[in-house]
């Protein structure tokens, strides 16, 4: 996937992660996008590490992995920030 696709995918994953785990985070929209993109990458790495397989393209499995990764990154971000 191209970088623009990962940004869009991360944006959606970040917004959904923020919706699932509401709370006050500094940075607003930009931080949400950055955490979402990082979460998508982390989720992809974790899924391949545990043998889920290759994560590529816009499909439901990749989206679920990206959202889970964004949730993990958001959780870690809040623990570090607090």
TrEMBL record:
Entry's transmembrane regions: 6-21, 28-52, 58-77
UniProt superkingdom: Bacteria
Keywords (A to Z) from UniProt: Cell membrane, Membrane, Transmembrane, Transmembrane helix
Family annotation (NCBIfam families): PRK10457.1
Compartment(s): Cell membrane
Topology in membrane: Multi-pass membrane protein
Gene Ontology annotations for the cellular component aspect, listed alphabetically: plasma membrane
Protein name: Putative membrane protein YeaQ/YmgE (Transglycosylase-associated protein family)
Protein family: Belongs to the UPF0410 family.
InterPro entries in alphabetical order: Transgly_assoc (IPR007341)
A Pfam match: Transgly_assoc
């Amino acid at each position: 996937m191209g970088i623009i696709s990962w940004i869009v995918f991360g944006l959606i994953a970040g917004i959904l992660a923020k919706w699932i785990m509401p709370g006050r985070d500094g940075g607003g929209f930009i931080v949400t996008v950055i955490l979402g993109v990082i979460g998508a990458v982390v989720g992809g790495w974790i899924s391949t590490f545990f043998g889920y397989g290759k994560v590529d393209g816009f499909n439901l499995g990749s989206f679920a992995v990206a959202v889970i990764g964004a949730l993990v990154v958001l959780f870690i971000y809040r623990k570090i920030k607090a």
